[in-house]
Structure formats: structure tokens, C-alpha cells
């Protein structure tokens, strides 16, 4: 249930009403104070609450019952967009296009530092790089693990770029102290125990959509994190599995506006995993920028033909430089319309 209060209500009146609701009914009340109004989001069993009685209160503007199972991620509970802000000043969801770039996996100190410096010059605000790599084959390169995280930290010290990297097990969380945004990969989107534990952290979580998951399932996974108290969630559309075999996955570009209508959380797009083909990354990135994505996460490698992981879907620093200029200009134009 959502209760919208009339403007300029005394805080004492709001507190008294909230206390009455939580005392008399089995509900939790989330209070959102916006620029125009105050919204109370009731989570729990609201069937016993008389909506007509609530609407009759002189300080109540309107009352709505919510059917969607996700509450904290729901835009109805939180009309304004959520903006993820890092202590270093970078933001995602503030109306600009955030660029996250780097290799699929960390391979050496020289490799990750060289790529970090190049993507920063091109306008990237975040450095991505895999230390722990979930691979379909157990014989494929699995990442440098803890050593990879140390190398990412060295690249961060050299460039100042915040780190975005994937976690595969909650047991690894102590190693992620220097990581700025923890990524949950597509295969772990419904690893609910992992999501719950990440909800107890206070680091932003980049949650990727699963290979065959619906938008509602993605939002429910975000709900697991937010229900534990961490509301710093970034959603990522990275392509879903369809009947098409010409690309690695199929980028669901319509997911961006759909999610934005349903949720207040920022949405970014991963054209690298969506396509699996390096020449497709630029047109898909342009489409994502044009449709209003809050950011892009792109695989960049200084020598894709010799990459230990996903070289076929990586672009070079020179290609990223050209792409970054195009998408930033396009994003500014679209947002000015």
C-alpha cells in the first residue's frame, strides 16, 4: 500500500500516523520525502487496513494498493530516480551516461594498468575487470582471483578509477574491501543467499540480469538486496538467451525503458556480453545511449586476439575512444530533447 501525504505536513503528525500503523498492523513503513510530497510505503500484510479510513485523514492526499511483489525497488514507493554516488565523486543515475570499461579478466599488472589509463583518457569513470571468472568450461581460465583484486587496486591507485568487479561467493567478500562496486553476474542473479549477504554490505551492487530471466525476476532479485538494508543497486541488461544463434545473446533494449517505468533504480547496458561480437558493441552501445540507459559497461582489451577470456567480444582502446565520444555526444543530445 502507498499513502501519499499532502504537502507541508508537520513531522509530528507523520510520526504519529506511522506509529499507529506499525502498532496496529503487521506492516513496516518506509518514508520517502520528495520535493513535492511525502510518500509512505507499507510493506507487509495490508489486507486488514481500511484504505477508505486512511484516505479520510485530512493529511492524506491519496491511497493506492500495490500488486507487484517488489516493494523497495518499485517506483511507486520511490518516485524520484535513485542516484548511486561514490565517495570519489562518480555517479550513476544522475542523468549523465556513466562509462565502465576494462578487460574481461585481469591478466597482469601491465595489462590492467595500461588499459585503465587508456580508458580513463577516453572518458571512462569506472574500471571493470574480472578477478574471479565464472566460466562454462572448468578447463577455461578462471581468473587470477585474490591476486587479480590486488592488481585492480594498483590500477585504481594509478588512475583514481573506482573498481567494478564480480563476486562469486560470499566467502570472498573480505577480499573486496578495496572494490567500489560489487558485480553480481548473470549466473548468480538468483543466488538468493549471496544477494541477502550483499544486502548487509554498504557497497553499491551491480546486478546483472540472468540469461533467461524476466524483468520482474530481476527486480525481485534486487528486492533481496534492498530488503537487507542496501538500497544502492544498479541493474544491468546484458542480453538474454533466445532462439537466435547469430549472436551470443539477444540484447533486450526494451528492458531499459520498461525497468525505468517500473523502478527507480539506475539501469545500465552491457553490449559486450549481449552480442559476443566486437563489431556489434558500438551500434548496441549507441542504441542503449539513445534509449536512455544510465550507463554502459564495455569490455576493452589492449590485445584482444591474445586475451585469456572473451577476446572476441572485446574492443581495443582506440575503438573505445571513438565509441565513447559518440555515445557521450548522443546521450547529451537525447537528454536535451
UniProtKB/TrEMBL annotation:
Class of enzymatic activity (EC top level): transferase
Entry superkingdom: Bacteria
Pfam families xrefs: DAHP_snth_FXD (PF18152), DAHP_synth_1 (PF00793)
Catalytic activity, EC: 2.5.1.54
Keywords tagged on the record: Transferase
Domain (DAHP synthetase I/KDSA) ranges: 83-334
Recorded GO MF terms: 3-deoxy-7-phosphoheptulonate synthase activity
Transferase as UniProt keyword: yes
Membrane-traversing stretches: none
Domain DAHP synthase ferredoxin-like residue range list: 1-68
InterPro entries xref list: Aldolase_TIM (IPR013785), Class-I_DAHP_synthase (IPR052899), DAHP1/KDSA (IPR006218), DAHP_snth_FXD (IPR041071), DAHP_syn_2 (IPR006268)
The keyword Cytoplasm is assigned to this record: no
Protein name per UniProt: 3-deoxy-7-phosphoheptulonate synthase
Species: Neglectibacter timonensis
Gene name tied to this protein: aroF
Amino acid at each position: 500500500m502507498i499513502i501519499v501525504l499532502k504537502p507541508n505536513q508537520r513531522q509530528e503528525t507523520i510520526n504519529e500516523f506511522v506509529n499507529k500503523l506499525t502498532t496496529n498492523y503487521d506492516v513496516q513503513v518506509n518514508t520517502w520525502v520528495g520535493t513535492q510530497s511525502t510518500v509512505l510505503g507499507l510493506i507487509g500484510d495490508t489486507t486488514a487496513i481500511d484504505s477508505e479510513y486512511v484516505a479520510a485523514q485530512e493529511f492524506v492526499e491519496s491511497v493506492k494498493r500495490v500488486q507487484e511483489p517488489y516493494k523497495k525497488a518499485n517506483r511507486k514507493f520511490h518516485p524520484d530516480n535513485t542516484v548511486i554516488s561514490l565517495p570519489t565523486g562518480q555517479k550513476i543515475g544522475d542523468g549523465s551516461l556513466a562509462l565502465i570499461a576494462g578487460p574481461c579478466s585481469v591478466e597482469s599488472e601491465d595489462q590492467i594498468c595500461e588499459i585503465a589509463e587508456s580508458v580513463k583518457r577516453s572518458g571512462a569513470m569506472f574500471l571493470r575487470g574480472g578477478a574471479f571468472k565464472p566460466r562454462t568450461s572448468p578447463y577455461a581460465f578462471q581468473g587470477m582471483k585474490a591476486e587479480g583484486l590486488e592488481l585492480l587496486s594498483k590500477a585504481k591507485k594509478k588512475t583514481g578509477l573506482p573498481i567494478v568487479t564480480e563476486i562469486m561467493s560470499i566467502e570472498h567478500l573480505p577480499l573486496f574491501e578495496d572494490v567500489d562496486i560489487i558485480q553480481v553476474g548473470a549466473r548468480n542473479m538468483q543466488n538468493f543467499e549471496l544477494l541477502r549477504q550483499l544486502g548487509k554490505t554498504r557497497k553499491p551492487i551491480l546486478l546483472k540480469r540472468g540469461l533467461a530471466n524476466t524483468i520482474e525476476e530481476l527486480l525481485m532479485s534486487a528486492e533481496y538486496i534492498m530488503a537487507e538494508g542496501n538500497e544502492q543497486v544498479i541493474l544491468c541488461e546484458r542480453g538474454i538467451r533466445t532462439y537466435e544463434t547469430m549472436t551470443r545473446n539477444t540484447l533486450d533494449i526494451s528492458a531499459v525503458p520498461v525497468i525505468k517505468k517500473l523502478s527507480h533504480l539506475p539501469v545500465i547496458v552491457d553490449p559486450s556480453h549481449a552480442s559476443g561480437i566486437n563489431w556489434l558493441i558500438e551500434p548496441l552501445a549507441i542504441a542503449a545511449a539513445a534509449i536512455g540507459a544510465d550507463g554502459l559497461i564495455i569490455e576493452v582489451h589492449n590485445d584482444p586476439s591474445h586475451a585469456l577470456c572473451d577476446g572476441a567480444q572485446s574492443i581495443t582502446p582506440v575503438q573505445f575512444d571513438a565509441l565513447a565520444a559518440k555515445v557521450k555526444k548522443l546521450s547529451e543530445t537525447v537528454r536535451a530533447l
